[in-house]
Amino acid sequence: MTRRSTYTLCGLALAAGIVIGTALDSARLASRVAAETPTQVAAAAERWSPEGEFEGDPLFQASRRLARIAELTTPSVVHIQSSRTGANRGKIEETGSGVIVTNDKSLGVFVVTNRHVVASAELPAISIHLHDGRVVQPSRVWSDKATDLAVLKIEAAGVQPARWGDSDELEIGHMVLAMGSPFGLSQSVTLGIISAKGRRSLKLGPNSDVLNQNFLQTDAAINPGNSGGPLIDLRGRVIGINTAIASNSGGNDGIGFSIPSNLARRVVDELLEVGAVQRAYLGVKLDPDFNVSAARRLTLDRVRGARVVEVYANTPASRANLKYDDVILSFGDVDVLDENHLINLVSLTPVERAAKVVVLREGKKLTLDVQLGDRADLERRAQTP
To answer: Catalytic annotation on 333?
Structure first.
């Protein structure tokens, strides 16, 4: 018998025990009520009604609040289907989720989802299933491979957009709802908590181009098909876009990852207003294996910051005189936690902006002024013969 089968059978056995116990309790209650007067029966019914004892129960109130949040938010969640042609000319179907939002500059109505849900699909092959049963096709798609986000413009009257929340306000332990279409089961809602923040070193597969990793981690059930759906806080606001899971089974193992809303919102706004996400670059290669022994050699009390192992010529880093073995401790007045944290800080800084960088060099702290460059220019130069 497999482990999964054991869980299933135990659940059934428990359910049977509850039914048997409930039946015995009902028989005893019926015998007692038969001896009571009509007034006594009415008073007992009042005590056990939702308007009676349960009305003031904090757990009952919390449950009703969750139901209300789901009721208000579900109309903004959509199911997405797309198809593309595979290498063997066969048809590959993709399914995912999305959330309806509006832009601050009233540019229209849009659906935010993951890029991998709609990547390589032609516009006619993408269908968006709305809460009210309508199916619409997007008129335009923007995407950003560095965050795995996509934005789809739709023409649909009477839709209910979701509200963005502030993901920086989240703390570990805050309750959240994950919404979407796991395994194609649309309008599904699961409950959990924020179990970690700042997950930046995830292995998302050999074909992943995700550069900006700063995921929220949650134990709310996220499964295949949830990709692109919203993570909702207890105010009914979108505080994340569900993107990935850590799983040995291919399904939910209690560890899911969401793009924080503040990052998602910035990417969405830039895609709609500029057409692409502008990212800055520094021009260094960082040590992905910076460890305790290297930190001690460099007179650090612990592993922190990002160690430079190469400075590329004719880059902002070389012009600012960054050197091999420098440890970048802070960038723009923000303490650097690790190399992935620095990549996020730099790439999400507006291009051509000057930033103060504090480095540790030969046991001493130095402050350098760096004029950041445009990563798009760097990529274009790299592609030029």
So the answer is: no
148 is catalytic: yes
- The DSSP result for 334-385, as a single string, is EE--SHHHHHHHHHTSPTT-EEEEEEEETTEEEEEEEE-EEHHHHHHHHH--
Annotated catalytic residue: which of 76, 82, 186, 227? 227
Catalytic residue among 148, 219, 326, 338: 148
**Looking at the whole model, is its pTM more than 0.70?**
yes
Kindly list the averaged pLDDT for each block of 10 residues, start to end, along the chain of length 385: 27 29 43 56 56 71 92 96 71 88 80 92 90 95 93 93 95 96 93 93 72 89 94 96 86 89 94 90 93 94 95 93 96 92 89 91 94 78 51
DSSP secondary structure code for residue 104 in this structure = T
Determine whether 31 is an active site residue.
no
Catalytic residue among 76, 79, 116, 186: 116
Count of beta carbons in the 10 Å neighbourhood of residue 355: 22
